[in-house]
Amino acid sequence: MKLMESFHGHALPETIRLMSRGEMKARVRSIKKELGSRLYMPGHYYQKDEVIQFADSTGDSLQLAETAAKNKEAEYIVFCGVHFMAETADILSASHQKVLLPDLRAGCSMADMATIRQVERGWTHLQDKLGDRILPITYVNSTAAIKAFCGENGGATVTSSNAARMLSWAFAQKEIVLFLPDQHLGRNTAYNLGIPLKHMAVWDPIQDYLEYDGNLNDIQIILWKGHCSVHEKFTTDNVSKFRQEYPDGNIIVHPECSFDVVQSADESGSTRKIIDVINKAPAGTKWAVGTEMNLVNRIAKQEDDKMVVSLNPNMCACLTMNRIDLPHLLWSLESILEGNPHHIITVDDKTKEKAEIALNRMFSRKI
C-alpha cells in the first residue's frame, strides 16, 4: 500500500504559539463560522475537552467515519482522532473531500502492532500449518492496508460493539478465524460465543511463532498478539481494591481489557455501551470504569448524580489521542483558510477499494 500524506512538519507557527487559550478558542470559532458547510469536524470520545467542544459530532471511530461519509457537502473533514480513523474516513468519503489529521503524530500503538508485511508473512506460515481454512477479520483499529488484506481474503472489519455478530459470521465462512490486531477483544468475544480458551491460539508476529500447546486441529481462533496500551493497564488488582473500598460499587470495562479483568468486572462493552449503561444507572450508584481517562472524566462530569471513577486511579489519558490539542486543531483550520491544507490523509485507490470491501461486508450485516 502506498499511503500519501502532505507533511509540513510538526512545529507550530509562532503566531499560534504566542496566542492565549482564549484567543485560540475564539479563532477556531471564527474559522468554523467562515468555512461553514465546507468544513466538517468529527471528534472521538477520547479527545480532550479543549478539542471535543468544537466537534460537529462525537462518537467512536467507525461512527464518526460513517457520519463523515454521509456528509457529502463538506470539502474538508478535519478528523479529531488518530491516524487509522482518518484513513477510514478517507476510504468512505467522496473523491472531492479531503481528510485532515491535525497532528500526524496522533497514531495508535495497537494499529502499529500489525503491519502489512507481518500479516502477509504470518498468513503464509499459518496457511502452511493449517491449510486454506482461515478467514481474517480485523478490528477497525487497524491500518487501511490490514483492512484491505481482509477484504481481499474474504474477511471483514469489526467494531467492539458488533464483534460477536461479525465473529459468528466469520465462523460460518471458515473453520478458523484470524483475529487482528487486538488479542483481548478477540479472546473476550470468542469466549462469550462459547469457544473455550483451549481452542484459542496466539500468533506472535515478532517471533513468527504460533503459541499453542494442543492439537492444531482443535484451533478455532488465532489471536494476533497485539493490544491497546491504555486498556491493558487495567488489572485484577484494580478490581479487588475497588471492591474492597466500595462493596456496593459496579465495574464496567471495555473488551480491549485483558480476559481476567473482563471476567472479574460486572459488565463489559463498547465505548457507547459504557456511556449508555452509566447514563441509565440510578442516581447514587458507584461506578469504576475501565477505559480511556478523558472519557471517564467527561462521564463523571455529565453524570454528577453518580460516583464515576477510573478503575485504575493512576491511569493516564491515551498519549497518541492527546496529540490532537487546541493549538494543532487551530493550525489545521488555518491551513485550510490559507488555501494550503496540510496533514492530508490519502489512501491510494487500490488499497481503498479492497478496504471498502471489508467495511461493506460488515455494513451488510446490518450492524
What would you say this structure looks like, in words?
The protein is α/β, with parallel strands linked by helices and 367 residues long. It folds into 3 domains: 3-107 and 320-350, Rossmann fold (3-Layer(aba) Sandwich), CATH 3.40.50.10800; 111-228, NadA-like (Rossmann fold), CATH 3.40.50.10800; 231-310, NadA-like (Rossmann fold), CATH 3.40.50.10800. It is built from 16 helices and 17 strands. The protein has helices at residues 14-17, 21-35, 49-52, 61-70, 83-92, 109-112, 116-130, 144-152, 163-173, 183-192, 236-245, 259-264, 271-280, 293-302, 326-337, 349-363; strands at 3-5, 39-40, 42-44, 57-59, 76-78, 98-100, 134-139, 156-158, 176-180, 200-204, 209-211, 221-224, 250-253, 267-268, 286-290, 307-310, 345-347. A 6-stranded mixed beta sheet has the order 8-7-9-12-10-11, sandwiched between helices. Helix 14 (293-302) links the parallel strand 15 and strand 16. Helix 8 (144-152) crosses helix 16. It starts with a strand and ends with a helix. The model is unreliable at 1-8 (pLDDT under 50).
Summary, kept brief:
This protein has about 375 residues and is α/β, with parallel strands linked by helices.
Total helical segments: 16
Count of separate structural domains: 3
Strand arrangement in the largest pleated sheet: 8-7-9-12-10-11
- What amount of the residues lies in strands? 15-25%
CATH topology of the largest domain: Rossmann fold
Helix content: 40-55%
Model regions low in confidence, pLDDT < 50 over at least 5 residues: 1-8
What is the rounded Rg?
Answer: 21 Å
**Secondary-structure-derived class:** alpha/beta
The major pleated sheet works out as: 6 strands, mixed
Shape: globular
The number of E-state strands comes to 17
Overall pLDDT confidence: 93
| CATH top-level class of the largest domain | Alpha Beta
